[in-house]
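Anyone? Bumping this.
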Amino acid sequence: MAETAVTTRLKKLINTPETEVKDALAGMAAAHGDLIRVEYDPNVIIRKDAPKKGKVGLVSGGGSGHEPMHGGYVGLGMLDAACPGAVFTSPTPDQMARATAAVDGGAGVLHIVKNYTGDIMNFEMAAELARGEGAKVNAVITNDDVAVQDSLYTAGRRGVGVTVLLEKIVGGCAEAGADLETVTTLAKKVNANGRSMGMALTSCIVPAAGKVTFEIADDEMELGIGIHGEPGRERTKLKSADEIAEILTSTVVKDLPYKRGDEVLAFVNGMGGTPLIELYVVANAVNRYLQKEGIKPTRWLVGSYITSLEMAGCSVTLLKLDAETTKFWDAPVHTPALRWKV
Amino acid sequence: MAVTTAQIYGWLERYAGIVAEQKKYLTGLDAAIGDGDHGINMDRGFQTVLVKLAPVRDKDAGTLLKTTGMALVGSVGGAGGPLYGTFFLRAGAALDGKAEVSDKDLVGALEAGLKGVVERGKANRNDKTMVDALAPAIERARQYVDEGAPLEEALAAAADAAEEGMKATIPLKALKGRASYLGDRSIGHQDPGATSSYLMLRALSDSLASVPQQAKTATS
């Protein structure tokens, strides 16, 4: 069959594009049955012990292809449920409505939504459905990508790296028993204090599309990419890791702006096809830049945590920390993709 | 002149076929300025629509359209799911319980659908979205029907207006949706959502034109 021939040529570890998400969900259920349970049609990854009575439920979701986000963050101290859509396609309202019902322990549910047109609309429809069933639902929208102008002339900044940090910090807060308003306020604070920018060395292939989303020459890079293989703002000749790290970090620093004396969480993220050694090369340059500016990176996260399939490249996220956010970042977490102090 | 439930079904079935046929084309348009999944998502959605319509195809027009809307909301994802889903849900609500649909009913349903799309997506005209095809088309249909033109003619004129609107998105800079991230780089590309909306209205026009209004449509 033609489909099979294409798949083989693309050299992806899939069976068919149509079954990829479900096959992967079944794999997650098999590997992490101690932490999560998986429901199908609608597809939802749910924390094994949900709903927890009296705890605010945290629900996120988005297109698949960004693993470990979001399903990998379901568990103690982070999300209560995640809704995986098709690859790079937002999930549907029935998924979020089911997730909301499954994790509502009576204290309300917070939807964590990345600022993409489709995600916003599907979560809005889901919140309408859930509220119709009597649930108390708040939503927070992440929009930390400095590569997009936040203006009337765009759909607004995209939600990228800060989403991961927010899910961890707000998850710690919800686990500690805070109420829905407190959790929502903290979520907004985290988003307001975080900024990100990404770049790509290569494009990626959505299996169902069967070809690269954008062409890029061997000696070029794309600055300001999002996490869906969508092209960025600027195409330039490839530069060294130090130069790339400085472009990303300085753009992020100037945007908030982060100031001398600020304590930050520095998050160097891989886009899916970049090895960890290269991310540490970038982290070294990010650290050097921050030290030079008098900004103190007191916490770090380095690895591929919000990805764009097999895209090579990285993003740099900074989050200004205070006592509250630091405490909840440090709090115990036990999920398929993040685990400490447990 | 009244539109039968069978003709409404015929429209949806015809459009599902066109989406399947044009899947690669729509996805290609989306890859240029979006994330390259519009045709894939719409095809998944309309294949689901056909499955969900099968048990209700003899019901009233409102049920057919609302079933279509729910199927799209639950299967398309992205922006297309809520937008096309809302279009059909609102259009269906406007035709609740109607086994026969008058010309004005049908145009009113299209208007209700468009209103839903605008509320859900908050797009204005010339933002380079599906509204650029839908809005001028449905306006023209209203104008023709109000002037007493036959529905067939009104819908053909509407499809022409949608086609013009679709083509007019090419020089526009996208102000909504993922294409807006590209800024000026979105200029020169035809909007995929406007394209699928044009195809939807052309399918409506063709499905009513190719079937004599009085005759029963084969339903095997």
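Late reply, but here is one note on the structure posted above: Strands of chain B lie at 2-4, 100-102.
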